[in-house]
Specification:
single chain; alpha+beta; Phosphorylase Kinase, domain 1; 5-stranded antiparallel β-sheet; 4-stranded mixed β-sheet
């Protein structure tokens, strides 16, 4: 097992080999050790992005997976880097059967009790696991997806290193924060940990199989749970040819155009009707069986859409196919994308140009979805819009499905196929039911709020009567409140003095003038005079000055 320190050394050596030593030295000054110049030369590549891809491939499974998932973030990274990341292949040299046998025996201690045959040569190999053909005691041919021994520890080590590197890069290079390196690593960690649990893979396959149980021509492998565990998945072995092998598909007597349309509509059903879709439709995960069925494999990456998100994505696609800029903005904001007000008009202009260049308009057959999505993500990258990963996975999946369809049939048109489907979907009960459900939920919330209103008012009054109600005062307004309170208290004091003078003077003047000294009489007169003057001043201050301020 490679230790954390040893793995750090490996990563630093490989990054230094491909010319990234200067960046590491800036991020970790004095703490990195690099290969001496000339001890090992990297392949002669013309661009930095090609060297990024080669470095990721040499760094191993965790980094290859990281690059593959980052290839979907076209709104963040430059197109040249995305092209290179898409070339990353999740292939690995297969391990000898003796090394994976222990993993199988953890779930199946005695192979001979369950299998009458296990092929020691793997039929497929990837970075996380490899697949062996086997035969159950009843003669059923199955596939054993076996996790590579030690891979969880290696991935956890690499994730900790990636997280520390991302945090350090954000601290040393503040301009990198717009890409949110730590957030990207956290999203990746969540995804790859899910892929390490093979039972999740099996549950995803079964859920999709249930969704398509009444759809002919679509097949998902059966899962044999009695032999499966988190690091071993036993499933039906399906023979078939890759979906990009057009000649072999034709040789089987199948029509490539029919396969393309069937696969395309299968994904539309997953996305818009089920809200649960296969998220990795590369040709190796899609087979055409001997019977002509389209077979789906590898369910480690799936997408999940809430009902309101399905409706938003329908809105987005309708807007793209009808050249509606305002509808595009509304749909994007519905996905949680925040558009700064100062950028709104410029963004509208760029979206309009995008629709003019790649949209359908009156000639929907010319609609180029792949190029439009590439341009849309470039526009979002230009304005530094933070796009949720779920939306990027959705767009990436549709683009990959379109690529598969075009390989099968170069004349396949996304626009001509999607438009009638969206029109049908808009008129169907699926969309109407979704809106009805949201409307009914909103109505119920409003009714609940109305019924709760008397109780809430009663509760507030109880707090007021018991003195337990609390008011929050903004600190910036505290001085204004204090000054207003001082002015009000001054007016009250003046009013009390005037009232006292009037009452006292009246009492004095009502006394008998015969027995009252003249001095006391003049004091009472002066009191009255002072009270009158103060009264006039108060009237002037309250009425005339207030009228002047209102003007």
């Amino acid at each position: 097992m490679v230790t954390r320190i040893g793995r750090y050394a490996q990563i630093i050596d490989i990054l230094g080999k491909y010319g990234f030593g200067i960046v590491l030295e800036q991020a970790f000054p004095g703490k990195t050790r690099f290969r001496l110049p000339g001890t090992e030369q990297a392949p002669d590549q013309s661009t930095v992005y090609e060297r990024v891809r080669l470095a990721l491939e040499e760094l191993g499974p965790t980094f290859v997976k990281f690059g593959q998932i980052m290839s979907t973030r076209t709104e963040i990274f430059p197109p040249e880097l995305i092209v290179q990341l898409k070339k990353l292949q999740d292939h690995a040299k297969p391990l000898p059967f003796s090394e994976v046998l222990g993993v199988i025996q953890q779930t199946c201690p005695k192979l001979e009790d369950w299998f009458c045959e296990v092929d020691e040569t793997p039929v497929a190999s990837a970075s996380i696991g490899q697949v062996h053909r086997a035969v159950l005691k009843d003669g059923t041919v199955v596939a054993l997806k076996v996790q590579r021994p030690g891979i969880p520890d290696l991935i956890e080590n690499d994730l900790a290193i990636l997280q520390s590197m991302a945090e350090r890069i954000e601290a040393v290079f503040p301009e990198s924060r717009m890409y949110n390196p730590t957030g990207l690593v956290q999203d990746f960690a969540t995804q790859i940990r899910k892929e390490l649990d093979f039972t999740r893979d099996g549950r995803n396959a079964e859920r999709m199989a249930r969704n398509f149980q009444n759809v002919p021509g679509i097949h998902f492998p059966k899962i044999y749970w009695e032999y499966s565990s988190p690091n071993l998945l036993v499933m039906e072995f399906v023979k078939g040819v890759r979906i990009d092998n057009v000649e072999a598909i034709t040789a089987q007597g199948c029509d490539p155009h029919d396969i393309a349309v069937r696969g395309f509509y299968a994904y539309l059903k997953m996305i818009f009707e089920d809200g649960f879709f296969h998220g990795d439709p590369h040709p190796g995960n899609l087979l055409v069986s001997d019977m002509g069925d389209l077979v789906f494999l590898d369910f480690g990456i799936v997408g999940l859409l809430r009902p309101e998100k399905k409706q938003l994505f329908i809105t987005l696609l309708i807007a793209l196919t009808t050249d509606d800029v305002d509808m595009i903005l509304k749909a994007l904001e519905g996905f949680g994308i925040v558009v700064a007000e100062e950028n709104r008009e410029a963004l509208r202009d760029d979206l309009y140009i995008m629709l003019h260049d790649f949209g359908g308009g009156d000639e929907i057959i010319q609609f180029n979805f792949g190029l439009m999505i590439n341009e849309l993500t470039e526009v979002m990258r230009r304005y530094s819009l933070k796009v949720p990963m779920s939306l990027m996975l959705l767009l990436k999946t549709l683009v990959m499905v379109l690529d598969d369809a075009v390989r099968l049939d170069p004349k396949f048109s996304f626009g001509s196929e999607i438009t009638p489907y969206l029109r049908k979907l808009s008129d169907s009960s699926i969309l109407s039911a979704g809106y009805a459900k949201r409307a009914s939920n909103s109505l119920l919330e409003a009714v609940d709020a109305a019924f709760d209103l008397p109780r809430n008012i009663n509760l507030m009054l109880k707090h007021v009567s018991t003195g337990t109600i609390r008011l929050g005062i903004v600190e910036s307004d505290l001085k204004k409140f204090e000054m207003a309170l001082d002015r009000a208290s001054d007016k009250i004091i003046v009013g009390l003095i005037v009232a006292a003078l009037v009452v006292g003077s009246s009492l004095v003047l009502q006394a008998s003038p015969v027995s009252m000294p003249k001095e006391v009489m003049w004091v009472a007169v002066l009191g009255y005079t002072a009270a009158v003057l103060c009264g006039f001043y108060a009237i002037y201050h309250v009425v005339f000055l207030k009228m002047r301020l209102e003007r």
